[in-house]
From TrEMBL:
Residues 112-398 form the NADH:quinone oxidoreductase/Mrp antiporter transmembrane domain. The chain crosses the membrane at residues 21-41, 61-80, 92-110, 116-137, 149-174, 194-216, 225-246, 252-271, 280-298, 304-325, 346-364, 384-407. GO terms for cellular component: mitochondrial membrane. The lineage of its organism: Eukaryota, Metazoa, Chordata, Craniata, Vertebrata. The keyword Membrane applies. Its EC number is 7.1.1.2. Residues 1-109 form the NADH:ubiquinone oxidoreductase chain 4 N-terminal domain. It is an enzyme of class 7 (translocase). Its main location: mitochondrion. It is a multi-pass membrane protein. This is NADH-ubiquinone oxidoreductase chain 4. The keyword Amino-acid biosynthesis does not apply. It comes from Karsenia koreana (Korean crevice salamander).
Amino acid sequence: MLKTIIPTTMLIPMIWLSPKKWLWFNSTFNSLIIASISLTFLSLPLEMKIMMNKYLGLDQISSPLLTLTCWLLPLMILASQNHLKNNPIKRQQMYISMFVILQMSLILAFSSTELILFYVSFEATLIPTLIIITRWGNQTERLNAGTYFLFYTLAGSLPLLVALLFLYSSASSLSMEFLFSSSQTFLMTTSNKIFWLGCLTAFMVKMPLYGAHLWLPKAQAAGSMILAAVLLKLGGYGIIRITLMFTSFIELSYPFIILALWGVLMTGLICTRQTDLKSLIAYSSVSHMGLVVAAALIQTPWSFTGAIILMISHGLISSALFCLANTNYERMHSRTMLLARGLQTTLPLMAAWWLLMNLFNMALPPTPNLWGELTIMISLFNWSPWTILISGLGTLITATYTLHMFLSTQRGQLPKHLQCISPTVTREHCLMTMHLLPMFLLMLKPELISGTFS
């Protein structure tokens, strides 16, 4: 684990000491080396846990998420290069530094075995993300988006802090290993129920659960890639960790499972009537994360496996969709889908990327998205046969709005204002390849990201 934490920390002085013309190359190249090193975490033997010390450790649940975090840093730097090239050098250095600080917080969050260290690093992700959204977001209402993001996250995580303090006073330890081994001692008392609810509130807002999702579309339109790809996964990871400790509390989860499934339908229907491209992709994230929340709360081995597979595959694909939306925005300076008709005739290779990403997003066989969704649906059906109605309808709606997104941006008559747009560049195709290549490789070996439960 030190082989990712220490090099990531050393990226900060490298960014500030690099010559101006080598800043982006050095940042991308060194973060890509860290990402390549992190791939070794995927080869953990089943049921094995690497402990660096008593505060940091890795197992089959956290290692795929940690690898995803490291893999996305060079991609985010690549994606931002064109957007920031005219900014003063100090701002460019600050922007990349924010991403590096965010990666350090996420590495600590995914590898911590103490709940209080997890809480501190969970909250530490808020500061760099807030700065990225409010300072470098593309939209005019980015300050409003930052305010939503800040207050929703703080309001959700305050109960988690109180719950952790209460747990420490009763159990005298916040070690996940200790609490997991003594999970049978958590009785169904009123105080334990409140504690369980307090723990899950922060993670459900972060996911977000339908009803606490209003901050996400605004924030994702401003700081889209990192939010969609990694920060939402912190919520899923937290829910899995907490539910593994409270195995006897499944009856309390029923209202949240129903709300999550209802959210899959509702946000899917919202997507079908979106005119803003980034808002459509953001709402589709809420829909996919609804399935992950439901799966994590059912607490069966298959549902946990499906939740982890879907989190990883959604992280890569939604990040890629936001990159594609950004390439459109850089050429048209608008996110309205109606203004982007017929781009296939001028940018045919980009249209091919759009098609591939949309097929992955609607879980076409044999993509990892399909493995995740299918495993979750089977778990839901075993829990209650009625859930097949909602999950089946959700799949149909996902296919509908995904095809609508593709047809409205790529097909049709090319408007006059788009007849002289700039062609695509190698950097953009490289970015798409680095998103899709892991997905194609995971098709061949999906057990790498299936957790300890397979």
